[in-house]
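Batch job 17 of 40 flagged for manual review because the log was empty.
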Amino acid sequence: SPLPKPTAPFIAWFEPPLLDTRPELYRGASLITSLVERHATVVPQLVAQGTSGLRWAFGPTSAAAEHSKGQAEFYAAQMSPMMRGVALPFAGVGIDEWNTGDPRFPQERDIAAAGFRQGRTRWPHAFVVAWVTQPDKVFLSLLADRTFDLAIVEGYSFIPDVGGLDFDGIVRRCEPFKRAGLLDRTIVCLGYLSATPDKQGRSMSFVDLQRLARALHKRYPEMPGLAFYGTKDASPATLELIELAHQLAAELFPRK
């Protein structure tokens, strides 16, 4: 029988460090959206501690377009909660990511949308999360018709050695969901959660993380949770930051 669908509040992660060896670090999470084959052995422990695991899946990116060859079936298959035909206890899939700006593939978003809708009919019980930077009308339609259960907006204020968004930049990515009346199935991912300074001496501090999380919660109280983006940084300071992030999420979005 299918696993029960995760329910709000959603405390989600992408690429959490040490997941393979220390899954107990993520007892405060309800969703891990980036599981691949090597995580198969840890999934039972995640399920036991109340953390739903989602299989990583392609979204309509440039890399995916090179695989899809213009076929909707490629994206339909991405909706399968199974891996290599084996029904591991995945609750669904995490689609990484909706990013359709490559001019070489102007039809890819429509091909992907058709495929995802086909996949939803095949696996109606799968919980489908889709990551997005710039939501367009096609993405919003997939969320509105529940092909996608939950949208996660990439709102990174700290990307090591690159930069990041300020609060206004994150808001600009969220406003289309507000206008569409879909905030109740949309959350923001903050990150990257790394306390180790990058080449410019920047890092993610709990002060900065808390400021953004509280400001977003105040502006968008309809949002049913929060997500975090990890890195390979597993330093003691970062592990402390992860624990503080879980405490903050539990305060803002208490489980009922």
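Reviewer: the log was empty due to a logging misconfiguration, but the result itself is present. The longest helix spans residues 236-252. Unflagging and moving on to job 18.
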